[in-house]
């Protein structure tokens, strides 16, 4: 998610520079391309099913927890 926010910020900054600076229209185009690519990556990320958590593993020397005494 941090990559998404970083790319959005880069796209906004490039867009502002492209609009504001004379002769740097290509910055605006690059910013739009980055923004579109960013939303494609976000869609791919959200479209994947969630991964199952890794099973717990014990080290070979670890002891099992004590079970309660049964009457």
Shape: rod-shaped
Q: How many beta strands in the DSSP annotation?
A: 0
Percent of sequence in beta strands? under 5%
Identify the quaternary structure here: single chain
Kindly report the average pLDDT value: 78
State the distance separating the first and last CA atoms: 53 Å
Structural class: mainly alpha
Rg, Cα atoms, Å: 25 Å
Individual helix count: 2
Helix/strand order: HH
Low-pLDDT regions: none
Portion of residues within helices: 55-70%
For the sheet with most strands, the description reads: none
Describe the 3D structure.
With 71 residues, the protein is an all-alpha fold. The chain has a domain at 2-47. Helices cover 59% and strands 0% of the residues. Helix 1 (2-20) runs antiparallel to helix 2. The protein is rod-shaped, with a radius of gyration of 25 Å.
């Amino acid at each position: 998610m941090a990559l998404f926010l970083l790319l959005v910020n880069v796209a906004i900054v490039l867009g502002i520079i492209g609009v504001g600076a004379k002769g740097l229209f290509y910055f605006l185009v690059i910013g739009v391309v980055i923004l579109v690519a960013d939303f494609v990556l976000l869609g791919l990320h959200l479209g994947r099913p969630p991964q199952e958590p890794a099973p717990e593993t014990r080290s070979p020397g670890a002891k099992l927890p004590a079970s309660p005494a049964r009457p």
